[in-house]
Amino acid sequence: MWGSLPTAALVAGFLAAGGVIFICGLRMTGLADKLADRTGLGEAIAGAVLLGAATSLGGTVVSITAALDGRASLAFSNSVGGIAAQTVFLAVADMFYRRINLEHAGADLGNVFQGLVLIVLLTLPFVAMTTPEVTMWAIHPVSFAILLVYGSGLLAGRTVRKAPMWTPTRTKETRPDRPDDEDAESRADSTGRLFLTFGLLMLLMGTSGYAIAKIASELSDRMQISETVVGALATAVVTSLPELVTTVAAVRRGALQLAIGGIIGGNTFDTLFLVASDVAYRDGSLYHAVGDQDYFWIVAALLMTGILTAGLILRQREGPGKIGIESILLLLVYAGAVATQFIVGGV
After folding, report:
1. Cβ–Cβ < 8 Å for 176, 158
2. Domain region containing 172
3. d(Cα 97, Cα 264) in Å, to the nearest integer?
4. Which has the closest alpha carbon to 18: 199, 266, 270, 212?
5. Residue 69: which CATH number?
6. Which of helix, strand or coil describes residue 139?
7. CA–centroid distance for 283 within its chain
8. Which of 85, 218, 233, 295, CA to CA, is 20 to 30 A from 71?
9. 8 Å CB contact between 58 and 209
């Protein structure tokens, strides 16, 4: 089907599918915030679970589809490239919060903890790379470890939120997570209806993700562009657009914990792309089927996550133009990673 279409039609289809993901992401922010208040999860947990998982659905489908087609590099780089892109989106959102450094105002222990969990998750693929290619049902044991760490991190994160052993120092600029007052029209929507709408938006995003994966694979072959470049800088960025939209929208609405939690939670969820891709990839271990260029994006994501987590702990009050120094570093690291990809990896 895709091979019979002209290149212009494929590019148009790629952009259209990205547009669907973009629009769905706009709608999901408000829904996630309302559900956070109604279910009592709190903005940080809702960002990690509801918003993070849902807005990552398009990328999940891209990685699974690519892995089923035997395109290991596209599946792998789409996952880890998305983590790097989404982290830099938080630096962009910091520019929209003019009062003070975003990481200072949105202090939340749950987000700090999830950042540390993400660092652990990002190191696990290196364990696979540096050990023999041993699989069970063509699945590497590291994939099971990622699932275990992810699940344990969610449970521990809930404990951290419910019974913290320490809390961020409150300042006049700290914006605590308080339930919003819903208007009469919003209260008329039942919680079940909110979840149903959320689910339908996820379905649309998943369908769009499938189309993006197929089109990206065809364009990579036709234009002879590296799958790593396509995955890390095309499909990853397009399917991550909801995170950019939802993060900026959440910041502008004052839901700072939701914004930060959505990025870190989405990134944590994106490590599960690797698990799903390893299961879908039937030719052995996914971690051994990819190359150094693909692992380069894990290095970038690890470095950026470390900078972000340090920024959440440091909580700098002022920076150049009230943007935190960690945001400036995130922008520089991502720009350097993109430049390195084109210079070393080629197109």
Report:
1. no
2. 2-176+189-345
3. 18
4. 212
5. 1.20.1420.30
6. strand
7. 27
8. 85
9. yes
